Amino acid sequence: xxxxxxxxxxxxxxxxxxxxxxxxxxxxxxxxxxxxxxxxxxxxxxxxxxxxxxxxxxxxxxxxxxxxxxxxxxxxxxxxxxxxxxxxxxxxxxxxxxxxxxxxxxxxxxxxxxxxxxxxxxxxxxxxxxxxxxxxxxxxxxxxxxxxxxxxxxxxxxxxxxxxxxxxxxxxxxxxxxxxxxxxxxxxxxxxxxxxxxxxxxxxxxxxxxxxxxxxxxxxxxxxxxxxxxxxxxxxxxxxxxxxxxxxxxxxxxxxxxxxxxxxxxxxxxxxxxxxxxxxxxxxxxxxxxxxxxxxxxxxxxxxxxxxxxxxxxxxxxxxxxxxxxxxxxxxxxxxxxxxxxxxxxxxxxxxxxxxxxxxxxxxxxxxxxxxxxxxxxxxxxxxxxxxxxxxxxxxxxxxxxxxxxxxxxxxxxxxxxxxxxxxxxxxxxxxxxxxxxxxxxxxxxxxxxxxxxxxxxxxxxxxxxxxxxxxxxxxxxxxxxxxxxxxxxxxxxxxxxxxxxxxxxxxxxxxxxxxxxxxxxx
Length: 523
Description:
Elements (H helix, E strand, L loop, with lengths): L8 H8 L1 H14 L5 H6 L5 H29 L1 H20 L4 H29 L5 H26 L6 H8 L2 H10 L7 H6 L3 H13 L6 H19 L12 H17 L2 H14 L4 H23 L2 H4 L2 H22 L3 E2 L12 E2 L2 H20 L1 H11 L6 H29 L3 H20 L11 H5 L16 H12 L5 H9 L11
Antiparallel strand pairs: 1-2
């Protein structure tokens, strides 16, 4: 029996982004647990490289997921690749729930990471391909919001389970990760396939009908549908003429898009924000917070994350991508420098604060309050800028032929650095202490410089038009501005040229007969 499809883009986004919620669940399934007595006792007080290996196992699996995501998505579709990812999550969560030792915990997190690698790359691709240009940013931001709600829910589930004695404490918390995965698996069959993927695999009739259902309430004669379909198929034909294979990511002007997509994801990690999301309990221990007060204070940070990302949801398609990325990186750099500077005046505790060997520095009084305040401020800036915008920008820069694999490549940049940082941060806290924050501050300045010189503005343009921004001879990034799409003019042209009575067959015929004469603008 063929299930009915729901074409409302916000509903589609709410279901699809549960894949992001899985990522959030896995993040705080550790951050809420690592400071509890039950966890420390059962896993023999893991610290340094051992704790780093546990924390980075998710990212290690996500590297694998990012590599396989593109080929799977290209062959089976964006929606079905997300369904495929769910099965890895079911197995990984089962392994974590039954955990008996550190190796088993790492294995379960690696399996869950494969899911996160696929969903974190293909959910933004799917949303970018179904959303209108005026709403694309806000639609993809729902992915980041889902991640944050997942972090928030799981953190307080972990906090509640911390009152359960023995290993049942963390096993119960980790078992709760089944719930969002089941919700996602039930909802996915009701979502439409991406019309751009359907066009890519030459399912023309289905593609144009899906596009019409998404953009014009099923009216295949709507000028918007005609104009956008012509744009999709014209660009697709040009891309196919330009060849395929891995070399397509680096030849002509395509290297600019590859660099932008991969680097914006890498900078999201190198900004140091995940120090706060993965290891905020450690940072607040440095600020002399202990026990339940530490956990609740950490939970407040996650609430701020949600509140301020929700705020940017309404403005991301008005303010543009470049300014948010650039000024966000500068703001985060300032926060890192302040936290690092204050901690440099702290006392050294070689036996570990409260016996935690990952935390060997502590400040008290006004210094502690400053660390807490600027830790919160850093997350607020991150929630308004790099956290949501990096996913949006990385999903926008690719062409139709390269988007699934390209986004997998971009996510690979994210997860490689996520893995490296997850492994490095615990021993970094123990060995270079406050200097870690200075390093992240300097990296944030580097991110701002690259954004200014190499990232053109993509806001308000169709994902086909964005190709021109990266092409040889395209505008300098610092000269680009939000808006200025040519699609509106093309809609009027279609309305004047064809009228409202053009049939579906005629439109498809007209589009198929529109043969490109040059591939020079394809980057």
